[in-house]
Amino acid sequence: MNPQRNSLLPLKSRPVSCSLRAGSSLTAPWHRAQSASASLKTCSSMYFWARPPKSGVCITPSPGIWLVRPQLGTRHHPCPLPRDRSQGLFLLPVTLSLEVSVGKATDIYAVNGTEILLPCTFSSCFGFEDLHFRWTYNSSDAFRVLIEGTVKNEKSDPKVTLKDDDRITLVGSTKEKMNNISIVLRDLEFSDTGKYTCHVKNPKENNLQHHATIFLQVVDRLEEVDNTVTLIILAVVGGVIGLLILILLIKKLIIFILKKTREKKKECLVSSSGNDNTENGLPGSKAEEKPPSKV
Question: Among its keywords, does the record have Ligase (predicted)?
Answer without folding.
Answer: no
